[in-house]
Amino acid sequence: MEGMTKADVDKLDKGLAVRSGRALRPRDAATLILLDRRGKDVLVLMGRRHARHAFMPGKFVFPGGRTDPADSRISVGAPLRDEEEKKLVAGPGRASAARARAIALSAIRETYEEAGLLIGRRGAFSTAKRDWQGFAEHGVIPSLDVLRFIARAITPPNRVRRFDTRFFSAWRHDVAVELPGGGPTNELEELVWLPLADARKADIPDITGMILEELEGRLADDPLLRPGGAVPFFRLVRNRFVREVL
């Protein structure tokens, strides 16, 4: 995937967003790849975006969305593992520890909002932030130590929306509460657990397929997804889409 051509870049973004005429600064975003081991298979949670959405309509995606800087002030049951934080603050646009914390927490928050899954530990939790009230209501303290930083990708310039997305993973047993009705935002029409091989064949964005391929390779080398693994980073450099490693 190193040194992709302009045609490859266009393919990655086809159907996701149209060109805008001006370069936008990418906004921090986070995505959570929730995994569940079933016998010899590893399943991944994906949801279908509503057809009415301007961004990736009808595509199967992982839960995720934009980072709220205020997420950095949310109390947690356990912080990021040192190995994961070092990866998050590395690379272009070096992030502060607070920014890295906010990005990681936004992956947990978005997974609750879109999928109704609360990741953390059972216990008393309180906050004044409305977006986190579900954790207080269900007695879950969000915890960051279960997250593994899997990949990073920046949307190329001249797109309607640009994100600097960090992809995290966690296991289903890290979910403290599963709400039967899904998340409160109803952004995803359908939530399904798919074997990784089947997920790659679904109607997914091309970058999602690349991330799944990277994840399969990492799982083959390290089935437990220990902290500090290599993190592929996809971005446009001098009009070439490249894969680097953090």
Automatic annotation (TrEMBL):
- Extract the PROSITE patterns matched here: NUDIX
Could you list this entry's UniProt keywords, alphabetically sorted.
Answer: Hydrolase, Magnesium, Manganese, Metal-binding
Any one Gene Ontology MF annotation carried by this entry is:
hydrolase activity, acting on acid anhydrides, in phosphorus-containing anhydrides
Domain Nudix hydrolase, chain residue ranges per copy: 26-216
Q: Which cofactor does it need?
A: Mg(2+); Mn(2+)
Q: Which SUPFAM superfamilies match?
A: Nudix
Tell me the InterPro entries matching this sequence.
NUDIX_hydrolase-like_dom_sf, NUDIX_hydrolase_dom, NUDT19
Q: Which PANTHER family match?
A: ACYL-COENZYME A DIPHOSPHATASE NUDT19, TESTOSTERONE-REGULATED PROTEIN RP2
Protein name, as recorded: NUDIX hydrolase
Naturally occurring in which organism (per UniProt): Mesorhizobium atlanticum
